[in-house]
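S.,

Sequence below, as promised.
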Amino acid sequence: MRRTRGRVVDVDTIEDFDQRLTRGTSSLSGWRMRSLDLTDRSAALRSVDVAGSLFLGCRLTLADEASVRARGAVVFPALPGIPIDTYRSSLYSPAELFGTGGYADSPDARTYAWSQRETSRDAALAQSLHDHSIDLALADWVSHRRLVGVMGGHGIVRGSREYADGVELGQHLSQTLTVATGGGPGAMEAVNLGGYLADRGPDAREQALTMLAAVPGFAPSIAGWAEAAFTVRAEFPDGGDSLGIPTWHYGHEPPNPFASAIAKYFRNAQREAILLEVCQAGIVFLPGAGGTVQEIFQDACENYYADESSVAPMILVGREYWSEQFPAWPLLQALAKGRPMEQHVHLVDTVQEAADLASVKA
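The prediction came back faster than expected:
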């Protein structure tokens, strides 16, 4: 696959590399080659100008690596002992993260264990390079979609009224927008499930809810929790698109299997900022606790300093919840008063109201 951004050309397959050279390319300036095995391309590499090119995790002979460096290329070698592709060119799929065996041996679990165990400079570099690659892949994925974010408590269990509300919200929003969540369990999973079932009716939603209710949460068995989700996916194949943006910082919580694309980061602060950034159509806040309250005011801070054209709608669901139980709404109103954001913050009672309002605002 090749993508061009101005003078930058991403080359992610050896076939693409060969085809471009066959067309008579004399310079690799601006090329960004990722994870290519170039050990038998010595003649090709020595026949072109490599100044200004970037080799990310590519396999080169020692002589070729020295040659391209001397001629102005930048080489970031593959780092040993890293369980992930630090230079990947796409977002994760649920199947890729969960693998085919038990969860304990899955790529997701092994990567989390490695991130907790390894504190070397090489590990820190690998994590930073990986997150940068996810940034680039995410920019591609959102470029032709309009996203609305949904945030809420990770402790909401399958089989609860709150979980069903999240699924319904995700289904409604997905009729006009693409939903994005933090990618974890609870309310996040519910909304991604709603996005997955976007083209299905209420009967399919109720059947999926019944199937999932047998395994309410990921404790004590992440494997059992994930298996129930993949059973639903098998029952309803070819689901709709939605996005999850989880983090290995909270790696004890697995990503949910209903997001069609998963932008998983190591750095939680980076992940939180990006989740707000990509949700151009605003964010809906379902009931939650500490993390959700933090997200409300992180979003509010950006809207507080934004001009009218940059304010993104904020919709809080649950009048009693956000006015009395966790009274974020009064403070949000006070912050918004007299600011461009004032007309863009809303408090509603039902997910249907939230979906209708989000669709109008979008």
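Residues 70 and 200 are 58 Å apart (CA to CA).

Coffee later?
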